[in-house]
Amino acid sequence: MKKTGILIIFLLFCQVGFTQSISYSYDFAGNRTERFLTVEKIKQNDSISKNDSIEGIAGEDLQVNNPKKLTETVNDKVITVYPNPTEGLLKISITNFDKGTGSIKLYTINGSELLKISPLQAENLINISDKTNGTYMMEIMLDGNKSVWKIVKR
User: Fold this and answer.
1) pLDDT at 75
2) pLDDT tens digits along 86-117
3) How far is it, in rounded angstroms, from Cα 47 to Cα 53?
C-alpha cells in the first residue's frame, strides 16, 4: 500500500514540471557569499532551449555558454569590458573619453600587480594569454574614480 501511495505521489509530481536555478552573490575579492535557489513551475507548453537566457545576479541577462559584455557608468563615461570570461584578449572600451588621466591595473587574487596601462585610450586591448587560468582583479582609474572588475581567464 505504501509503495502504491509513493508511486501515485511520484506520478503526480512528474505531471507538473519544475525548473530550478541557482545564483550566487560574490564580494569584491571574488569570494562566494550567498547562494540562492529558485524553483519555478513550467507550463506544459513551455520549452527550454540551450540559447534561453537566465536571470543573473543584479538583473543581468546571461547567455548560456556565451562570454558576457560587462558595462559600468563612471560619471558620464561608460566602461565596457568584454569578453569575460576571456581566453586571453580583453577589450576595454570607454565612451565619452578624451585622452586624459587614467590607468588600468591588473592584479592577481592575492593583490600582486601584474600589469599597468597608462595613459588610457578610448579603446584598450589587454593580452593576458600568457597568464595562468584563474581569477584576476582589474582596477580602472578615470579622473580620480576607481572601478574594480573581476576578470576570469580560462
Assistant:
1) 80
2) 998 999 999 988 776 789 999 999 999 999 99
3) 13
Residue 113, burial from CB neighbour count under 10 angstroms (0-12, 13-18, 19+):
exposed
Strand partners, 18: 41
- Quick one: what percent of the chain has pLDDT higher than 70? 68
Please count the other Cβ atoms lying within 10 Å of the Cβ belonging to residue 149. Answer: 19
Contact of 114 with 107, CB cutoff 8 Å = yes
Residue 135 in this model has a pLDDT that exceeds 90 = yes
* Cβ contact 42:15 at 8 Å: no
Structural domains of the chain, with CATH:
17-63 (no CATH), 68-153 (2.60.40.10)
Cell readout for 116 is: 599597468
Nearest to 19 by CA among 57, 53, 45, 48: 48
Q: How far apart are CA 139 and CA 72, in angstroms?
A: 13
For the four alpha carbons of 89, 94, 98 and 102, in that order, the dihedral sign comes to: negative
Best CA proximity match to 40, nearest among 15, 13, 18, 14: 18
For position 96, what pLDDT does the model report?
85
Global pTM exceeds 0.85:
no
